[in-house]
Design a protein that fits this description.
Layout (H helix, E strand, L loop, with lengths): L2 H5 L3 H9 L7 H12 L4 E4 L6 H12 L9 E4 L3 H14 L8 E4 L5 H10 L3 E4 L1 H9 L10 E4 L2 H6 L3 H9 L6 E6 L4 H10 L4 E4 L10 E7 L5 H11 L5 E4 L3 H13 L4 E4 L5 H12 L5 E4 L14 E4 L6 H8 L9 E7 L4 H11 L4 E2 L5 H18 L4 H4 L3 H8 L4 H20 L33 E6 L9 H12 L6 E6 L4 E6 L3 H8 L2 E3 L2 E2 L2 E3 H7 L14 H4 L34 H12 L3 H4 L1 E2 L1
Parallel strand pairs: 1-6, 1-7, 2-4, 2-5, 3-4, 5-6, 8-13, 8-14, 9-11, 9-12, 10-11, 12-13, 18-21
Antiparallel strand pairs: 15-17, 15-20, 16-17, 18-19
The structure holds adenosine monophosphate.
The site of adenosine monophosphate has 16 residues, from α4.
């Protein structure tokens, strides 16, 4: 017997399900359908998106409502227009063989008069976003006095989006006797509160453990410098030729920027965010659904509720601020029993966040290595060869061109021909990746503090991996706080705050960390900066500490003098033949290893020669 029949679903509906390819119930359907079919309980279902929730509540509704009546009997509230349309379309498909079933989708950003017209014609199931539903109720255009069931779908998302009050108001228009079914992917305190406030002894079902993500998702993370994020992202995509992914950014601007940069580099990508008009958003979604774009770059809000089949990867280009959002993001892949990968590109400072998410999901994330340029080129080459192998030759269409093709290639041996074909793509990637560097940051020596989830640097002299600790001769006596000092550093060096690590503010001096690659830029930036008529000095704090017997921060009793700093070495750049000229680091320690014993006058004059101007003329004053 068809397992849906065993669950208590009638033949007409099961036939429609079979046509949709639903052979057996998903676990959530198996567990919740019998409970909901009883129709006598409030219900809380904790389940990820993509697990078959819509049918889990939709099938019982189709069994329980009286479709010979024409008034609303069930209202389904959900967070977005997308989801609203999806749910109403799904219900219509399940009800394909039933008579007189009327479902209306009610959502903002579309003509209200059309929706009102449909309501007037008579509906039993209203699927709505809270704002528009209230609007319609406010016009007295719908009668909720016969509502038997209220479904709150993606309740956590609705609360996140600030719909709490709207939901309260809508619920207050429905009869006391109605039953409330709440579905949520996560169970934050606010959702618990709603369940408590509006439900009586609800039956609770948890698919997996609370807040657990979909078991078919593999979670991976890459640790790189903030400045290497985009390069890493591209390498991952290039290493995954068949990717069909959603890339999450934190802001609309970031979303737009990444999409534009990808398009410029020849990728099939487009952006989805709230600054687009509804029409533009629909167009992008259509492109994505049709697979005419391979990468959808989206914000959390714009992509809520999206159900696109076969998403292979979710990429967290930026980790979300809210932990729950991670679950929602990753739930866009591995839908309907398929598997998928959720990737996060992070810097060392975000390791703690990964540990936190791991703990919440109860799942270990795999630290992945950014592939080398060579790996990517190889992967692309064999990807292309595989494609060549599997291509279907359209004999009829290509036949007229064959004589000319044979003529063009007739001279070439089989081996030459293969080499040339393979090189078409290979050369492009080879060119791009020929001088590529290793983007991985070594995290072996980083312990994440168990209590706060952040890299544990309780030992004062421990600098974050990938960062260099620098000394600067300004501090709190100069009326700097940490934010001021960060601004001062960023303005003077044109380095983004994201590349600056921990700032340790002292009295007359301070320490700050900067990504290793940018140390030279710091020296260069400060060579033209004065503060209150004082020359601003930068030194490598690591060297300073080693010299002063490992005491963090050097000495505060005045031993931080020129003679003690004159042996400090600056981190070497590239080939290591630097004359000290591109540093601008003075005070006697501004040379690389090989020139550290050069007389100071020589270094200074070298610096002046390089910069081509006298320091006194070129200083920026603060
Ligand atoms: P949902 O969680 O309701 O958004 O469903 C996620 C996806 O799974 C949708 O594309 C559904 O069409 C599909 N789906 C739901 N139930 C089943 C089932 N029993 N068998 C196969 N696919 C299903």
């Amino acid at each position: 017997m068809n397992p849906f029949i065993e669950l208590g679903i009638r033949h007409d509906i099961v036939n429609a399900l079979t046509e949709l390819g639903f052979e057996k119930p998903t676990p959530i359907q198996e567990q919740s359908v019998p409970v909901l079919l009883a129709g006598s309980n409030d219900f809380v279902g904790l389940a990820q998106t993509g697990t078959g929730k819509t049918a889990a509540f939709g099938l019982p509704l189709l069994e329980l409502l009286d479709f010979s009546e024409k008034h609303p009997q069930a209202v389904i509230l959900c967070p977005t227009r997308e989801l609203c349309l999806q749910i109403s379309n799904d219900l219509k498909k399940y009800a394909k063989n039933l008579n007189n079933v009327n479902v209306v989708a009610v959502y903002g950003g579309a003509s209200i008069s059309d929706q009102l017209r449909q309501i007037r014609r008579g509906v039993q199931i209203v699927v709505a976003t809270p704002g528009r539903m209230l609007d319609i109720l406010g016009r007295n255009a719908i009668d909720f006095s016969h509502i038997k069931y209220v479904v709150l779908d993606e309740a956590d998302e609705m609360l996140n989006m600030g719909f709490q009050e709207d939901i309260n108001n809508i619920l207050s228009t429905t009869p006391e006797s109605k039953k409330t079914w709440l579905f949520s992917a996560t169970m934050p305190r606010e959702v618990r509160r709603i369940a408590k406030q509006y439900m009586t002894d609800p039956v609770e079902l948890t698919m997996g453990t609370e807040n657990t993500g979909n078991a078919n998702i593999n979670h991976e993370y890459y640790v790189v410098r903030a400045s290497d994020k985009f390069a890493t992202f591209k390498r991952i995509i290039d290493f995954t030729p068949g990717i069909f992914g959603i890339v999450f950014c934190r802001t609309k601007i970031e979303t737009q920027d990444i999409a534009e940069a990808l398009i410029k580099d020849g990728y099939n990508a487009n952006a989805l965010h709230g600054d687009l008009s509804q029409q533009q958003r629909d167009k992008v979604m259509k492109q994505y659904r049709d697979k005419s774009i391979q990468l959808l770059i989206a914000t959390d809000v714009a992509s809520r509720g999206i159900d696109v089949k076969d998403v292979t990867h979710v990429i967290n280009y930026s980790l979300p601020d809210e932990l729950e959002s991670y679950t929602h993001r990753s739930g866009r892949t591995a839908r309907a029993g398929k598997s998928g990968v959720s990737i996060s590109i992070i810097n060392v400072k975000e390791l703690g966040k990964i540990r936190q998410i791991e703990r919440t999901l109860g799942k270990k994330f795999v630290k992945a290595e950014v592939p080398s340029g060579f790996d990517v080129v190889e992967k692309q080459l064999f990807g292309m060869i595989n494609k060549l192998h599997n291509v279907t030759v359209n004999e009829e269409q290509i036949a007229p061109y064959m004589p000319r093709i044979m003529q063009e290639f007739g001279e070439l041996s089989k081996e030459e021909l293969i080499k040339k074909f393979a090189s078409v793509e290979f050369n492009r990637f080879l060119e791009y990746y020929k001088n590529s560097k290793d983007l991985n940051v070594d995290t072996n020596n980083i312990n994440v503090n168990e209590r706060n989830g952040r890299p544990d640097r309780s030992r004062r002299d421990e600098t974050e991996a990938g960062f260099t600790r620098l000394f600067i001769n300004v501090g709190s006596v100069d009326e700097f706080n940490r934010g001021d000092l960060l601004g001062f550093i960023c303005n003077s060096t044109q380095i983004s705050g994201k590349s600056i690590g921990k700032i340790d503010l002292k009295g007359v001096f301070s320490f700050f960390e900067v990504e290793n690659d940018l140390v030279e830029k710091v020296y260069a930036g400060f060579k033209t900066v004065e503060f209150n008529g004082r020359e601003v000095r930068i030194e490598n704090a690591g060297a300073r500490q080693r010299e002063s017997g490992g005491r963090s921060g050097g000495s505060s009793n005045g031993s931080r003098n020129r003679s003690s700093s004159s042996h400090h070495s600056r981190p070497r750049t590239g080939g290591g033949n630097g004359s000290g000229g591109n540093g601008g680091y003075r005070g006697g320690s501004g040379s690389n290893d090989s020139s550290s014993r050069r007389p100071r006058e020589k270094q200074d004059s070298g610096f002046r020669d390089f910069s081509g101007r006298s320091k006194s003329e070129s200083k920026k004053r603060w």
